Amino acid sequence: MLIAIKPTIQQYGLKQTKLSTQPKNSTYIKNNDISFGSLEAANAITSQAMINTKHSMITNSKTRLGANYDAKTNSVDFKLASKNATSVILCIFENPKGEDAKLNIKMNKKDDSNIWETSIPVDILGGKDKPIYYAYRVFGPNWEFSESYFEDKSKGYKSLVDDDGNRFNPNKLAFDPYSRELSHLPSDNPNGENAFIVNDKNYLEDNAHYAPKSVFTIQKETIIPKASQRTLTDEIIGEVHIKDLSINEDVEGAGTYLGAQNMAKKLKNLGFTMIEFLPLNEFDDKQGGGNHWGYMTLGYFAPSKKYSHDKTAGASLKEFREMIKAFHKENLKVCMDVVYNHTGEAGLVNNDIKQARQTSFSLIDNQMYYKQKAGIYNSNSGCGNDMNVAEEEVMDFIADSVAYWAHQGVDAFRFDLAAGLMDIDKSEKVYYDASRSLVGKLSSMLKQRGIKVLEPTQKGDGIYLIAEPWTCGGENSYQLGKFPDEWAQWNDIARETIKKDSTFPFTITPRALKNVLEGSYDILGAGNKSINYAYSHDGFNLNDGNSYKSAPECWHYATDFNGDLTRQENAMKKQIALTLLSKGTPMLQVGDVIAHSKGGEDNSYNQDNDTNYLDFSKIRNLETRKGRICDFTKKMIEFRKKHLELRDGIFNKNIQYYKPDGSFAHPWDKRYWDNVNSNIICYKIKDGSHLFFSTSSDENRINVILPQAQEGKKWYLVCDTSRKHSFIEGDEKIDYNYIQNPHSLLIFEER
């Protein structure tokens, strides 16, 4: 029985409301958008989509919890998970700001579960075409429900936070964790985000007039073509911030999903096959004085409205899907950077247990969602809180979120600080277990939700999982190599080795570089799980890492090579080449391909300006650094794509290493392999390849003896990174030897 709680504009009972229903199996298609009148109709459309298009999918905007439209009853079902709540009131608003709720409905708790639920006829909510604004008032052990709550907002209050860490406060509205859209952001009010700091002075103040509301609209589904099936190790990943990508471009919707959609061909022409976007989930860009990158997620099912060209209710998801369509039509895949280790909400203010920022999760169930003890949050993420990923409801929440985005066409997911998702302890203590944690269970949980997880060397209809295999603090925070086989992993060993080989060459041994070239097999097994990169959004970028001097204590180290511009450019080329020649999956920042400079800024997370905005206007001029770096990278990518042996799963078993004098570099020769002064590696892939490589970090020119060419064939120089235009046009035959310039990489091909 649904109970309306006073004050309310309208009381109703389900029996008093006549439900309008659609004819069975009714559907219609318009502009590739699909509305379903029944499950049978949905299945029929799905089958038809697969018949009409060999590789396509149909979107699905339904979620396990949250708000969902039921066509059979013409009503909206609301479901909320809270393990420790004692009462929940659903509040329905006519408008998102400046008014009280028009309906306050006490929800029922489903038997033997943590799910609170109710169902409301669409007619009462204003009709199918009207956005629904809603939020929750949640009661619990520290603030019990009272029938006279609306007459006296202090009724039921016991404590701001209790010994178990409960922070329930019905005076502070909570938006739905399953929101597909937020009406506005916490900072979108005169007092900014600080208005949501709950303390012992303002806990009785009702924030209904300005709190963000969840927005529900009935979405039409659409058919999305898929990119071609290929392994993760066949991809060339380009990391980029969605606004930075197009904001300076003369395209419609610059800086938005629409703008990114109009950049798909340009990204393809650069050689990328998968674009990894920095977080696209809803976040508050003004949080903390500036949060450009978006690693403080508020809405895990909501595309950020900031990136939507169309700001009307329900438009963000549609525009997001159109972007996915455009990328897939260019055979580009999309990877989302997702942040489940912490949220952008809770956190103590000034380390005061009586002051915490609250907008959703902590108001719904602080114990369930967060790692904490008596209200004091863990923060191994370094961001104010850690999610309690050992809780079953939180595991389901994360799996639901990943599955939701996969159902919108997303191909891969990069998990920020993913070591935090290995925790199996529900208390403030931490215990990592790769198999029993969310990390180990996620593949099977996604399978239950209709999503297949592929291993890096598999191809098919499915998604890829990529871990950032560490977190910022706490015991055992570094977990590279500890993830299950289906997880690819960001390889910071490759990152440091590739950079230091150029910037601090006498700190790297040939063995260290050999291990990276072979995919860090000593840590990552066969090496196919390695995501190889030298630069990412964290730290200096490629241009600045080789053009500026960093402070001695900065781990984002950089050097300017004493102002030697040629050495700077050559180092950049060599780092790009080593990234693309190493076993695993290469990742480059899109900005690095055009030698973008941030002016020496090594942590630009809060810079919504030209520090981060990309400028593609100068890449055609090959007489500039930007032009030459872009041209070199494109050709290096083409070279990798052309030579399957560089991507073959066992190529590292077929490598024969040489010293520059032409003799074999035997595995047992520790004086060579473990000597930081042995600054050159030469190698040939033996079977099915006609390639020979030499990479030098030596200060001197070195005479490199090439292996004996096969009968009837000669060696030809393909690339010399020390040359201004590094890839060779035409044939340059090499008879026996070649003088290698300092700090360069050479590629030869046997023809």
Low-confidence stretches: 5-31
- Strand order across the largest sheet: 15-16-19-24-25-26-27-28
Count of distinct strands: 36
Please report which band the strand proportion falls in: under 5%, 5-15%, 15-25%, 25-35%, 35-45% or over 45%: 15-25%
Secondary structure category: alpha+beta
Distance between the termini: 80 Å
Annotation field: number of helices = 17
Please tell me how large the radius of gyration is. 28 Å
Mean pLDDT: 92
Task: Summarize the main sheet.
Answer: 8 strands, parallel, barrel
Protein model, in words:
The protein starts with a strand and ends with a strand. With 751 residues, the protein is α+β, with helices and mostly antiparallel strands. Strands 15-16-19-24-25-26-27-28 form an 8-stranded parallel beta barrel. The chain has a 6-stranded antiparallel sheet with strand order 29-30-31-36-33-34, with helices on one face. Helix 10 packs across helix 11. Helices cover 21% and strands 21% of the residues.
